[in-house]
Amino acid sequence: MRLDKFLKVSRIIKRRSVAKEIADKDRIQINGKTAKSSSSVAVEDELTIQFGNKTLKVRVDNIKDTTKKDEAKDLYTVLEETYKDSDNT
């Protein structure tokens, strides 16, 4: 499955267009390698996503073409969630 579609279906990112934009700005890695929106995602892959001051690391547990809202959380496991300190004083 394409990276941008997985991010939308899993509801990590709400819109596919936003997922594509983030990926194409080199802010997503699959297994430590920079990924584009068209990159393939497989079960057991580790995704690292940079959102502004937050970095989210997840493991892909399942892949489905569509999900209901309550099923989306079963597609991945959050491995790490870190925040950058925005106070630079």
TrEMBL record:
Residues 1-64 form the RNA-binding S4 domain. GO terms for biological process: rescue of stalled ribosome. SUPFAM superfamilies: Alpha-L RNA-binding motif. The keyword RNA-binding applies. It holds the Pfam family S4. GO terms for molecular function: ribosomal large subunit binding; rRNA binding; tRNA binding. It comes from the Bacteria. This is RQC P-site tRNA stabilizing factor. The gene is rqcP.
